[in-house]
Structure formats: structure tokens, C-alpha cells
Amino acid sequence: MRIELSVALALLLATTARAQEETISFPAAVSFETGDSWQYEGRKFRLFGVQACIRGTIYRAPDGAESDCGMQSIASLAALFSTGSIGCQPVGRAKDDATFVVCAAQLDNATVDVGTALISSGAAFAAVFPSGAPVSAAYAVAESSARDKVSGLWSGTFAHPVSVLLDK
Fold first, then answer.
1. CA dist 72 → 2, 55, 98 (Å)
2. Which residue segments constitute the domains of the chain, with CATH numbers given?
3. CB crowding 82-118: b at 16 or more within 10 Å, else e
4. What is the Cα–Cα distance from 27 to 40, expressed in whole angstroms?
5. 3, 16, 53, 134: most buried, per Cβ within 10 A?
6. InterPro entries recorded for this chain (predicted)?
7. Phi-psi group of 30: left, alpha or beta (phi > 0 → left; psi -120 to 50 → alpha; rest → beta)
């Protein structure tokens, strides 16, 4: 609990300090590393509170076809980037110096949160703290809804990335 509070406080301070930075707009032509991170102009960006499927893990579709689960997540993020204008607000730095961002996409005259779009469609998951508590309650609700609706990756079988990362 103490570690989570420290992390939350650090994120709040980082968010406040970064609030002065202007929104970063991205073209569709970024270099995707995972379903929640990309590189653009020599900088690495990572969606805050979002966890993509791990590259190298297996996704088994309902018809039995197997593919790389991480590549499924990358394809979904790339598709989202290709359909609209993406703008991101920096909210902090990761240990690997990636910039954590919260992003919005303009789709069909509506603004949508990129993390919510990916998670609620079943293309990504809610990130968690080492304790297993969700980084974002809203994203945890979106994941639960996608799981209940059997959306996206939830329609098949896969190793949930949180269980892989936390070795559970």
C-alpha cells in the first residue's frame, strides 16, 4: 500500500510538472514497438495505464488459428493511429526514459481516449501496479466490460499479460 501511494504521488507530481508541455500530435507513420508503445523522432512513448499483449506469447483464435498475441495488440494500435488524428499529453517518465502519455484520437467527429478504445475493444488491458491493483480504475472497468462482451482478444485464448509480468 505504501509503495502504491508513493507511485501515485510521483505520478501526480510528474503530471503536474508535465502539464506545462503542449500536446504532442502524431502522424500514422510512427514506429510501433508494442501495442502500447512507439517511437517518433527519436523519442519513445508509452500509453499510461495500458498494457498490451506480450510479444512472443500465443493468441489462439476461436477457429484454432494461432498468432503472436503482441502482434495482435500492435496491429490494433497501428489501426487506431491510421484512422484519425492522435494527440497525446505527457504525464511522466518511465524507468527506461519513455514518456508516459495519455492520448486522444479524433474519430468520426468524436474525441476518444486511446487507452479506453484499445482496452474496451479487447486489444489491450488495464496496467497494474506490482501489487495487482489497477493503475487506472476506468481502464479496469473497460477491461472487465471487454472480457464480459468477449471482445477482441477475449474471443480466443491467451496468456493475460498481467499474469505473465507478475508471474502468476
1. 35, 9, 22
2. 2-156 (2.40.50.90)
3. eebebbbbbbbeeeeebbbbbbbbeeeeeebbbbbbb
4. 9
5. 53
6. SNase_OB-fold_sf (IPR035437)
7. beta
User: What is the Cα–Cα distance from 51 to 69, expressed in whole angstroms?
Assistant: 12
Distance CA 72, CA 46 (A): 17
Alpha-carbon 21 to chain mean position:
21
Q: Is 158 exposed, middle or buried (0-12, 13-18, 19+ CB in 10 A)?
A: buried
Which residues neighbour 74 within 8 Å (Cβ) at sequence distance 6 or greater? Answer: 32, 34, 35, 52, 55
Q: What is the pLDDT of residues 32-78, one digit of tens each?
A: 999 999 999 999 999 999 999 999 999 999 999 999 999 999 999 99
pLDDT in tens, 7-36: 333 343 344 344 445 788 887 678 999 999
Residue 35 CB coordination number (10 Å): 29
CA 154/CA 137 separation, integer angstroms: 19
Residue 87 β-bridge partners? 25, 104
